[in-house]
Amino acid sequence: MTTGEGTSPMTTEWFFDDFTVGQVHPTMGRTVTEADVVNFVGLSGVFEELFVNAEFARDSSLFAGRAVPGLLILLFAEGLWVQSGRSHKGRAYLGLDELRIVAPVIVNDTLWVDVTVEEARRSTSRPEYGVLVLRHRVRNQRDEEVMSYKTARMLESRSAE
């Protein structure tokens, strides 16, 4: 799958036990709109000229249009993961590591995420839970990676085994 096409939210519950190292879970896609950027900037207070001045973005920026703030890309990626249905048994967000923005995202780009299970282990302190380490690779409509990061999450398990 190269564009996240054809994926839809899961209808079954995913527990820790359903994940194995090496699995890749593509999300659905989402197009970033001008309204998304305006709303994010207004909510966050990140009033950088690059994000709020269309003339500057067109004439003086490094990009071919209005760039999307990196933190908005991250939030979209996390939202796409949640919408996949695979995180609904999540009980704790344990960390975010290795965040890298590797290419710009411009308004009207469409994003989707390949989420790879890098580690799956039982929690030592809470055996009814497992810990997943996931690599998130955010891609655009041209299948170019634009962001990469890792998360650690605690999920409910079916059994304490």
Characterization of this structure:
By secondary structure, the chain is an alpha+beta fold. The protein has a single domain (16-156), classed as Roll (Thiol Ester Dehydrase, Chain A), CATH 3.10.129. Helix content is 22%, strand content 33%. The protein contains four helices and six strands; from the N terminus they run E-E-H-H-H-H-E-E-E-E. The protein has helices at 34-44, 49-52, 54-59, 70-83, and strands spanning 24-26, 30-31, 90-101, 110-122, 129-139, 145-156. Strands 1, 2, 3, 4, 5 and 6 form a six-stranded antiparallel beta sheet that branches. The longest helix has 14 residues, at 70-83. The protein is elongated. The protein starts with 23 loop residues before the first strand and ends in a 5-residue tail after the last strand. The model is unreliable at 1-11 (pLDDT under 50).
Low-pLDDT windows of residues: 1-11
Number of domains: 1
Termini gap: 35 Å
Oligomer: single chain
Tally of contiguous helical segments:
4
Secondary-structure content class? alpha+beta
Q: What are the key terms here?
A:
single chain; 161 residues; alpha+beta; Thiol Ester Dehydrase, Chain A; 6-stranded antiparallel β-sheet; 4 helices; 6 strands; 22% helix; 33% strand; disordered N terminus
